[in-house]
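User: I'm curious whether this sequence folds into something compact or stays loose and floppy. Could you predict its structure so I can see for myself?
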Amino acid sequence: MNLSNILKTAIRSGNVMYAERIMHDAKTMPAKQFILLRTMSHP
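Assistant: Here's the prediction. I'll summarize afterward.
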């Protein structure tokens, strides 16, 4: 699942705070670390 899909899902579910958090995380950490973190915290 790529970043845009995660964002679309979060926005569609009304979880704008979650989408904003994802965007912030994506900008502040390397892609591999970001993907690992998201995969572990959101199976």
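Summary: Residues 3-41 form one domain. The radius of gyration is 10 Å.
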